[in-house]
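User: Hey, quick favor. My workstation is busy. Could you predict this chain's structure for me?
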Amino acid sequence: MVRTRFAPSPTGNIHIGGLRTALYAYALAKHNKGEFILRIEDTDKKREVEGATEKIKELLNLFGLIWDEYFIQSERVKSGIYKKAAEKLVKEGHAYYCQHEGRNAKKEGFSKELRDSCRDKNLTSGAIKLRVPDNEKVSFKDFVVGKEISWNTSDVADATLLKSDGFPTYHLAVVVDDNDMKVSHVLRGHDWMPSTPIHLLVHKYLGFKLPEIGHLTDILDPEGGKLSKRKGSTSVEGLLKEGYLPSALLNYVCLLGWAPKNNQEIFSLEEFVAMFDPKGFQKSNPVFDRAKLDWMNGEYIRKADLEGFIRMLKSESSGFSEELLKKIAPLIKDRIKKLSEFGNYTRFFIEEPTVEKKLLGPNSKKHLEAAKKALDKIKKWDLEEINEVLMEAVKDNGFKIGDFFMDLRIAVTGTRFTPPINDSIVILGKDTTLKRLSKVT
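Assistant: No problem, here it is.
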C-alpha cells in the first residue's frame, strides 16, 4: 500500500511550500488508494510555538487534506523507540556517545568538522552521534528528480541522533518513524537534500527498508532567490487573511512544481487527486507569481453562485446588512480578484465618502449640476429611469459620456473604482445620492 506522510514541526506558520508538500503527499496516497499520515515532529521543544499544532490541523482540514493516521513525536519518545534504536547503533559500532549535542540538524549534513573527537573516547553516556564511515558511496534514486544521487561519506558529518535529554534529532526520528509507520513514499523539500546521506546510513545500519524518496523543487521569489519563510505574505494563514479562497490557493499551489498532461489549470482537489501522476513533477524551480494567483482566485470567485459568494464575504462585510449585501454582491462579484478588495469597492455604500476635488474633471461643476437636476425630477427610482434621465442630460448638454459619468462616480462614491455607478445610485437611494451631489457642487 502507498503510505505517505506530512511531518511538520510546530514552530510557526505553515509556509506555502509546506502546503505544497502536504498536498502532493496526500494526492500521491489517495490516487493510489493509499493512506495519508499527519505526524507532528515536535521534539525541538525550545522552538515550539504554542497553538501551532492545532493551527496545522485546522488548516489541513480547511483544505480538505484529511489524514488517516495521526502521530505526535514527543508522545512517541515516552515509548523509548528512539532511544532503543540509537543504543542499537552504539552497540553495533555505528554510533557513539558524545558530551555535546552538535550543530543544527538541518545543516549538519555538510560541515567543516566532519568527525567528532568523541568517537574515539569510548564514552558511555551523553548524546549519541552517528559514526559515519570514510570513503564509502551512499546513493538513492530520487523519484521526483528522476535520477540517482550519491555522496562520498568522507563529505558527510557525524550527525547527532539522540540528544542527552533523550529526545531524538530529526535524523533519527524521521527514519525510525517512517519505518515504524510503514511509509512507502517520502516527499520533502529540496533544502533537506543534505541530510539524505545521513538517513540512508541510518536506514542501512538499522536494517530498515528504504522508502521511495523524492525532493521537490524550490519555490522562487519573483524578486530573486528562494521564497523566504520569513515573508509573512507567503504563510498560508497570511494569504487566507488577504482574501484568497482555500480552493483557489490549493489549486494554485498544486501547479507550483507539477503539471498535468492536458495543461488544465482549474480543478478541484478531487480532480487533482484523480489525475495526479508523479511523472508530472517538474525539474525547474517555479516562481511564486502573485498575478497568476490573483487571476485564479478571481476565477473561483466568479464560479461561485451568489449565495456562496455572500457567504465568502462574511469576514469582509462588517457593517453591511444582509439585505444590502444581496443588492451589492451581483455588482461586485465579477470585479474583484480577492475578497479583501470588497471593502475598497463598496465602503461608500455605508460610509459617506470624502471627495478629493482634484480627482474631478474641469467640467465637473456643469456635469454634477446637470446630473442633480436630472435625478431630482425622477419619481420612480429605478435603473431604467436613472439611465434614461442621465443620458438625456449628457445629450442635451453635449457632454462627453465618459467624463460626465466619471465625475458623477467620484462625487457620489469618492473613488474612480466602484461597481457600475447607475446601479450603485439605485441602491444608495435618491435622498443620499442628491445629498452627496449637493455637497460637492
